[in-house]
Amino acid sequence: MLIVTKHFLLFGLICCLLVSKTLSDISLNNYGDPAYPGRCVIDVGSTVVLLNYGERYRLKSLPCTYIFCSGDGYGLLYTCEKKSPPYGCRFAEYLKWDNVYPECCERKVVCD
User: Where does the signal peptide begin and end (predicted)?
Assistant: First the structure.
């Protein structure tokens, strides 16, 4: 029964996130490792982060990028929406890199 509930919750979560896709880009990835069954294992270079179902981790090396562990080693990687700058302009640096989502997605726009 618990496995069915977990899968139902995962399906519901994925559906909700797909509906809100206008705010972010989302991908489902396998972060599983046989040494840590049921957990998401994130290798961040100098250390390994172990996530349980429902936990999230922010990747410090990328702007506004999170991994949400959805169970059985699978996680949702979400980042800012991929959009184009206004015509004749370009995106520069992130304005609020360390803020929480979605504020961390704000970027400086430079128009030539």
Answer: 1-24
User: What span, in angstroms and rounded, lies between the C-alpha atoms of 72 and 41?
Assistant: 11
19 is in which domain, residue-wise?
A: 2-81
Considering its fold, how many domains does the chain have in total? Answer: 1
Within-domain flag for 62: yes
Residue 92 in domain: no
pTM of the model: 0.69
Domain annotation covers residue 71 = yes
pLDDT in tens, 52-79: 999 999 988 888 899 999 989 999 998 8
Residue 65 included in any domain: yes
